[in-house]
Every structure is written in structure tokens, then in C-alpha cells.
Amino acid sequence: MIIDHIDKTISIKIVYFGPALSGKTTSIKTLFSLFGKEEEICSIESTVNRTLFFDYGIVTFQNQEWKIKIHIYTTTGQDFYIITRLITLRAVDGLIFVLDSQKEAYERNIISWKELLSYFSECIEDIPIIIAFNKQDLQEKFNPENFLNDININKYKNIKSRYTSAKLGEGILDCFENALQLILKKYYKNRLVNVLN
Ligand SMILES: Nc1nc2c(ncn2[C@@H]2O[C@H](COP(=O)(O)OP(=O)(O)OP(=O)(O)O)[C@@H](O)[C@H]2O)c(=O)[nH]1
Ligand SMILES: [Mg+2]
């Protein structure tokens, strides 16, 4: 998070991370279309619409005094471009882990989660995370509780989960708002500690 007191602008970075083809790009395209800004996403894609590097866009909110600029990225799910994931994750303020809820994707979700942990090790607990159980519109889904147990969700205070169907636009705004809430709550908590110190 970057706070510019002269410009009165707060910049926040949110990244959509997850395994290949889980719906990261669809999620942010849906989000931007809900804001009427679908044209403003910059996507670096292959000819078959797979993300090569990232998708990127900015959403801005403003009150009379302050502007909040949210920089939104997706990572690529293709392992061939794995190096780009770490770069895209730099200085992230909040994560939306988009997983594919289909039974056959279970292992891929676990592998992707472990990869995410490997980038942050202990400090993963400092980053607000929303786990989005995407593709809820499909049949043959695994039980979300199994996934949450497998990743030891009880040990984390910084993670919440939500259901989404990015293709249908369901749950996408809720997920984004929740990530933003967690990020801002963490910021105010830290500020309070600073003031008390
Ligand atoms: N049925 C269904 N399909 C979805 C949903 N979300 C995404 N898809 C489909 O899943 C496929 C992959 O979606 P993308 O959004 O490109 O996935 P991605 O995670 O960005 O993929 P990579 O960047 O290549 O890793 C596309 O065919 C989407 O239409 C969903 O909620 N339901
Ligand atoms: Mg993509």
C-alpha cells in the first residue's frame, strides 16, 4: 500500500492467484464489467486466450478528500511462465485465491496453494486472502471443507472463503469487497498500534 499525502491518494494492489484455468481472468473481467470498465483491462494473452504474463486494471474510488486506487492483477496459471508469477506478486496487499471447484482439479488447487505459500513462507499470515471456490455452476464439485481442512485453515486468521461463478458473475463483487475490507481493516489496526506506541 502506498499513501501519498500530497496527492491524497491511497494505492492498493490486489492479485488474483490460482491454478491453470481456474477462472482468474474471467473473475477480473466480470469485476470490471460490473464497474462498467471492461475495456480498461490490459491482458497479455496467447492466441488461445491463455494468460501469458498477467491481466491488469485499475479501479478508483473517491470521496471528497481521498482517492483509493486499486491496482488489480491476475497471475498466469501456465507453469511455463512460472517466473512471471513471483514478479506479479511483488508488494501485494491482498490476494484472491481463485480455485477450480471441480473434483478433477482438486490436486491442482492444492499444488497451487503450496506454491503460493512457498513465495511468502511465514509472512503469508500478514496478507489478507479470500479463497474463491469458483465454478460453482458446474456439477461434480469437491467438498470445500475438505480443501479448507487440507490447508489447515484454522491456523490462519487472515483467510476467508467465498463461493463464485465467474462466468455467471456470481459472488465476484462480494469477494472483491471482502478482500478490500480485510486490507483496510489491517491498515487501520496497524495505524492504531503505531499511534499507541
Ligand atoms: N462453468 C464455468 N466456467 C468458468 C468459470 N470461470 C471460468 N470459467 C471457464 O474456465 C476457462 C478458463 O478461464 P480463465 O478465466 O481464462 O482462467 P485463468 O485462471 O485465467 O486461466 P490461465 O490464465 O490460463 O491460468 C474458460 O473457458 C472460462 O470460460 C465459472 O465460474 N464457471
Ligand atoms: Mg488468465
Structure notes:
This protein is of the alpha/beta class. It has one domain (2-196): P-loop containing nucleotide triphosphate hydrolases (Rossmann fold), CATH 3.40.50.300. 33% of the residues lie in helices and 28% in strands. It has five helices and eight strands. It has helices at 24-34, 82-88, 106-120, 144-150, 172-196; strands at residues 2-4, 9-17, 42-45, 51-62, 67-75, 94-100, 129-134, 159-163. Strands 1, 2, 3, 4, 5, 6, 7 and 8 form an eight-stranded mixed beta sheet that branches. The two termini are 21 Å apart. The mean pLDDT is 92. Bound molecules: guanosine-5'-triphosphate and magnesium ion.
Task: For this entry, give a set of tags.
8-stranded mixed beta sheet; globular; 28% strand; 197 residues; binds guanosine-5'-triphosphate; Rossmann fold; binds magnesium ion; alpha/beta; 8 strands; single chain
According to CATH, the homologous superfamily is P-loop containing nucleotide triphosphate hydrolases
Q: Please give the count of helices.
A: 5
Q: Judging from the principal axes of the Cα atoms, what is the shape?
A: globular
Name the hetero compounds present.
guanosine-5'-triphosphate, magnesium ion
Short summary of the structure?
With 197 residues, the chain is α/β, with parallel strands linked by helices. Helices cover 33% and strands 28% of the residues. It is built from 5 helices and 8 strands; from the N terminus they run ββαβββαβαβαβα.
